[in-house]
Design a protein that fits this description.
By secondary structure, this protein is mostly helical. It has 13 helices and no strands. The chain has helices at about 1-30, 35-55, 65-90, 95-100, 105-115, 120-140, 150-175, 180-205, 210-215, 220-245, 250-255, 260-270, 275-315. The two termini are about 30 Å apart.
């Protein structure tokens, strides 16, 4: 019980960091190309986690078998997720991305149910849908609708959601064999190599190598990259890998929608954006959905445990 409660606290912290990351991403992209931002972001992440490994704060032990298992994981996240998301946002509106991303918990529920045989009750399914409805409600009442003329961008955003759902499911499966540090180190290393190579090749082809380093003269860019690299990439990776070793993928994924609530709150307190009654109503739906998903999941597990104990006692008699 205590470990599960601890996992819920970590999930709330994870959602809070992700919710604030949108603000820092907007600040960083205002100063740099999206691909360059990803390169700097994962450079910071990989340098920090490498120092932690060198200092033996994080211990890693890989074999060829582990490399074979962790490569697909790191290709799903961060590589495919950020690639699909970045180019999806390029060809569509951010509001479209917000609405589509809300379906990630449903995709995770389906994928985890199929591959991991994770079973959820009807009330859990309804709670997940309630959370998704809360996110969509917030976007729709603000006048946002899905623009089908941006079909390419929407498809790419949907692929990023699928990548997240597959990553969450795979992490849950691998968590019994690898530590959060081992998975995160491999993921940050993969992101560092792929995004830096992609950014450098792009600049070399265009003859704009100096533009790659020019954002470093901006203190706003540096502060944004530090937040994105350390907290929004490295810390969230360690958190999600730890959380998924303790609770089901479907229970973890629904917490992602809490980031919408955090984004709204951040916009109000940091950017002085106005919070409407619709924001509050949608946020309440999201929170109820998150609480319901995990409450009914815990209730089901308790019921199963009681039945097993009862059956055990009966067999003894």
């Amino acid at each position: 019980m205590k470990s599960r409660t601890f996992a819920y606290m970590l999930a709330i912290l994870h959602s809070s960091i992700v919710g604030l990351s949108f603000l820092f991403t907007k600040m960083a992209i205002a100063e740099s190309d999206p691909l360059d931002t990803l390169a700097f972001r994962f450079t910071v992440s990989f340098v920090i986690i490498s120092l932690l490994v060198a200092a033996k704060v994080i211990k890693v032990n890989y074999s060829w078998e582990s490399v074979k298992n962790l490569v697909p994981l790191s290709l799903l996240f961060p590589t495919l997720f950020f690639a699909f998301q970045t180019f999806g946002l390029k060809y569509s509106q951010s509001t479209d991305a917000g609405i589509l991303s809300a379906v990630t918990p449903i995709l995770t529920l389906m994928i985890a149910g199929y591959f991991l045989k994770e079973k959820t009750t009807l009330y859990q399914k309804l709670s997940i849908v309630l959370s998704v409805v809360g996110v969509i409600f917030i976007f729709v009442v603000k006048g946002s609708t899905i623009n089908f003329s941006d079909m390419l961008g929407m498809v790419l955003i949907l692929f990023s959601c699928i990548a997240t759902a597959c990553y969450t499911t795979m992490t849950r499966s691998l968590a019994k064999d690898y530590t959060p540090g081992e998975m995160s180190f491999f993921m940050m290393g993969t992101g560092f190599v792929i995004f830096n190579v992609a950014a450098l090749v792009s600049h070399i082809k265009q003859g704009t190598m100096l533009e790659f380093f020019s954002p470093l003269s901006s203190t706003e860019f540096i502060s944004s990259i530090l937040y994105l690299g350390i907290l929004a990439s490295l810390v969230t990776s360690l958190l999600s890998n730890t959380i998924l070793s303790k609770i089901k993928a479907s229970q973890m994924s629904v917490f992602a929608n809490l980031s919408t609530v955090v984004t709204i709150a951040a916009g109000a307190f940091i950017l002085n954006e106005q919070i409407t009654i619709y924001d509050i109503a949608g946020s309440i739906l999201i929170i109820l959905g998150v609480v319901g998903t995990n409450y009914f999941g815990r209730k089901k597990e308790h019921s199963i445990k009681v039945n097993l104990e009862y059956n055990g006692e009966q067999s003894v008699k």
